[in-house]
Amino acid sequence: MKTIGPVLVVLGCILAIWYGAAVLLNAQWERDQAARADSTIGWAEIVPRTMAQERPVLPVPHQVAAELWKLTWGEEVHGRKGLVRSGSLSNRGLLLHAWVTFSATLLGFAIGSGFGILLAVGIVYNKAMDASVMPWAIASQTIPIVAIAPMIVVVLNAVGVSGLLPKALIAAYLSFFPVVVGMVKGQRAPDAMQLDLLRTYNATPAQGLWKLRFPASMPYLFASLKVGVAASLVGTIVAEMPLGGAGLGTRLLAGSYYGQTIQIWATLFVAASLAAASVILIGALQRGTLKRMGFGR
Amino acid sequence: MTEKATPAVITANDVELTFQTSDGPVHALTGVNLTIEKGDFVSFIGPSGCGKTTFLRCIAGLETPTGGELSVNGMSADEARRARAYGYVFQAAGLYPWRTIGGNIRLPLEIMGFSRADQDQRVERVLELVDLKGFGKKFPWQLSGGMQQRASIARALAFDAEILLMDEPFGALDEIVRDHLNEELLKLWARTEKTIAFVTHSIPEAVYLSTKIVVMSPRPGRIADVIESPLPRIRPLDIRDSAAFIEVAHRVREGLRAGHSDDV
User: Fold this and answer.
1) Most CB atoms closer than 10 Å: which of A28, A43, B5, B215?
2) What is the mean pLDDT of chain B?
3) Which residues in chain A are contacts of B139 at CB distance < 8 A?
4) Do the Cβ atoms of A290 and A217 come closer than 8 Å?
5) What DSSP designation does B140 have?
6) CATH of domain A94-292
7) What part of B 103-142 touches A (C-beta under 8 Å)?
């Protein structure tokens, strides 16, 4: 409860800066309009108008909030295609798109994390993989995802793979890397003494993995998963841009085609909330797991 | 103590170990000859760099000698390791923080494939043996350093190996706790009749605990003196004030000084 004051102050500052910036950025359009009508216009008139433009350079917070409300609750409850009237989520609202993006994100995250863990085990247990895999993994992350995503989507479409999977694969492409790095580090966390201890028991490598290396790497794994799930969401959104159909990426692109800045911002907020929710979820999973494992102190 | 009555458990014959480093070879051990009999409590004492820990690791099969013969239970050291012939206690307790004390003691039992019921029974038994009854469900961080080290001894005892190898197990503990654990260790040794090899750098600890004290000296690591202790097997703490004790301690000190004379 002691933190609520500072949090509110920071939030207030952000909102104040946002409103200020919106007024400054949108003012020029109002002056141009006034000039076109052969009149001059003072700040007293400019300020309220900058907060009510249809296509502002920077929409103000309450515009974004209203748009968010309209595209979620409003669309589903009152809209012709909404949940209440049609029984399914509206393709004009954001919930459907958020769900499509989120499911691809989760699938991609699962694929990416699984692949990352397998790769990390390979790197730790196999000298050849240790020397050869990491440079490629790093190289894979230096390629801009925006450049490679359309190609992967097109190639997969050509071989008959479409729908969720192409997007999920691009999400996996981004999310496997932090998991590899974290899990390699985590599995190498046990010191020489702990490894010697297992040798005195004549433990098999598999026992070493399950009883020592995996448990020891759990704190590292969760840190990586948090980064990975956010990267996964970014990958999905980027992959959706050239695709069409449903998804937050598609909506963002459509918004920028038609200059719907308020809609873009509303969509961005949904994406950000999805990322935040995922990270919080993993954080909760982390606390629960580590506490049960006795790391909690 | 005749050789026939008590069979040799560990015999070292001219054991040598040379590490190849970028600065040239380092002679960690040269010409080590030693016999450890069943039921012996043997301490290795010497300054750092004398190879006492290295020799213990050779017995454990964690290092491989580059020369000579070393047999443990009639096998090579590595075969003995694979046959799980010994329990090893390290300088630090090294308990897994994600396992309870009971879970830590269970670790070797799980690896060696003991049945679940047998595991439970053994965990209870060794917890009692090291005086930690009722602490099985606690996590390591809830215990003091001395208790953690006792738990690690319990872990080494759990699978009933005949040999116990201990590498400065009490080195990081304060003297009061150390005295107490020394006394406990002697009782444990008397009850379990194990053969114990014990590395230390404390002269009173070595004299108090051992039936045989191996004094080692560095550069190259070698045995300077082997002292058969005349002290009785049952030793109360105040035996350390007896004349016999002081005499043995004196001889150990002499041995250490002789080994050091060339480079002091």
Assistant:
1) B215
2) 88
3) 294
4) no
5) G
6) 1.10.3720.10
7) 107-108, 110-112, 139-141
